[in-house]
Amino acid sequence: MSELLQLSFQTQVMLVSGYISYSLAYSGWRQNHSHFDTSFIILCFGSIYLAINLLIKSLVESDHFSVEIISSLVGITSTVIAAVLWRNYFRIFSFKIFRKVMKGVDDNLISAFDSVINDVSLSHSELFVSLNNGTCYESYPLGQFNDLPNGPCTYGRDGSIAMYITRIFDEHSPEGRHAKGTINEDGHRITIIPADQIREIEIRRR
C-alpha cells in the first residue's frame, strides 16, 4: 500500500478507475480470474482513463489544478461507461465472434449455471426450482417482481437461489397450488433456498 501511495496522482487515479471499471464489468465473473488476469484487465481499463486524461490536457493547454480534476473526472466516467458497454454488449459480441472463429463453446466461466445466469442478452420470464424432497417452487411471471429491491430473483454464487414463490408443487398438489402470502398488503415475501437443497433449476428465457 505504501508503494501505491508513492505513485503519482495520475497513476493512482488510473489504477482506481481501472479497478472500479473491472469490478463493474466482471461482477459475478471474477472467481476464476488469476492475479495476472485481474491486473491486466485493470490496466486495460486504466489505459482508457489515461488516454482521455492526456487528450483533454492536450486540448486545454493549462497547468491549473482544475484541469487535472476535470480531466480525471472525465477519464473515470469514460472508463465506467466502457465497463458498462463491455458487460452488456461488447463481451457478448466478442464471444460470438470467438465461437465462430475458434469453433468453441467455452465462455471461460466455471459452470453452465454461471454461463446461463450471466447471459444478459436474454430476459428470464419463469423460474422453476425442484428440491431434493420432491417439492417444486415456481415463480411466474418473473417480470412482476422486476421493480423490487432484489429484482425478480437472485442467483447466489454458491448455487443458492432467492425467489418469490407464486406456485407450489408437491405430493399433496401434483398439479400445483397458489402460494399464499407471497404478495399481500405487508409486502412481498422472498424465499431463500440453500444450494444443497436444490436438485434441479429450470429457467425460461426469451
Largest sheet entry? 5 strands, antiparallel
Q: Structural class of the helix and strand makeup?
A: alpha+beta
Strand and helix order? HHHHHEEEEEEEEEE
**Average pLDDT taken over every residue:** 86
Compute the separation of the termini in Å: 46 Å
* Strands side by side in the biggest sheet: 6-5-2-1-10
**Number of helical segments with 4 or more residues:** 5
Regions with little confidence, pLDDT below 50 for 5+ residues? none
Q: Calculate Rg over CA atoms.
A: 23 Å
**How many β strands by DSSP?**
10
Amount of helix:
40-55%
- The coarse silhouette is elongated
Q: How large is the share of residues in beta strands?
A: 15-25%
What can be said about this structure in brief?
This protein is α+β, with helices and mostly antiparallel strands.
Any overview of this molecule?
With 206 residues, the chain is an alpha+beta fold. Helix content is 44%, strand content 18%. It contains 5 helices and 10 strands. It has helices at 2-5, 9-25, 35-59, 65-102, 112-117; strands at residues 124-131, 136-139, 153-155, 161-163, 167-169, 177-178, 183-184, 187-188, 191-193, 198-205. Strands 6-5-2-1-10 form a 5-stranded antiparallel β-sheet, with no helix packed on it. It is elongated, with a radius of gyration of 23 Å. It starts with a helix and ends with a strand.
Topology:
Elements lengths: L1 H4 L3 H17 L9 H25 L5 H38 L9 H6 L6 E8 L4 E4 L13 E3 L5 E3 L3 E3 L7 E2 L4 E2 L2 E2 L2 E3 L4 E8 L1
Antiparallel strand pairs: 1-2, 1-10, 2-5, 3-4, 4-9, 5-6, 7-8
